[in-house]
Amino acid sequence: MEETIRTKRHRDLDVAELVALAGLFDSEYLSEYGRWNPDAPYGYSPADFHVLAFRGPVLAAHVGFQPRLIGVGAHDIVVAGTGGVLVDERARGTGLGGRVMRHAQQVMCDEAKVDFGFLGCRQEVVPFYESTGWVPVYATERCLSRLDQKSVIVSEGGPNLICSAVCDVSQWPHGGIDLRGTPW
Question: 86, 61 in Cβ contact below 8 A?
Fold first, then answer.
């Protein structure tokens, strides 16, 4: 089956792509979180960039990210806050997730021109991200709650991961992380 990976800005998504994204997300999260909303996905920050992977005409995987200036220690860093990483269950185990993630990382560097990719995740998926070049960072994280977008949440130990974009992961500064908004 033919596989196509392409990047679209959020503002440029057409109706068919929005319907396909809703179908992909609702197939995974509808019973737990309700319907997917492209402008406020489950209370997380929305993506500005969408990396879409199609197998034939069917949307089979997605990675979204939003460039944002965050604080790390005493530094301002531009990251691609990454979320909405999802592979249709029928395409899992095929390597598609890794291909889509590596494509997203290239877009972060070449098109978005952010310093680093940044994401938070569940511990059980850390090995997947590490296999695509993401590196864990250990720091206190501060963000706004995805539930009310007002309460400040402070957490320790993540897991949070970064990847190289314009800057190499070795250049990530030390210190607490302030997302200056909701997580992705």
Answer: yes
The pair of three-digit structure tokens given for residue 100, joined into one six-digit string: 């889509």
- The DSSP element (H or E) to which 27 belongs, if any, is helix 15-33
Question: Domain map of the chain by residue range?
Answer: 3-178
What is the model's pTM? 0.94
- For residue 15 the two structure tokens come to 């109706």
pLDDT tens by residue, 114-165: 999 999 999 999 999 999 999 999 999 999 999 999 999 999 988 999 999 9
Contacts 24+ apart (CB under 8 A), 39-44: 41/83, 41/84, 42/146, 43/145, 43/146, 43/147, 43/149, 43/182, 44/83, 44/84, 44/146, 44/182, 44/183, 44/184
> Distance between CA atoms of 67 and 47, rounded to whole angstroms?
9
Please state which CATH class domain 3-178 belongs to: alpha beta
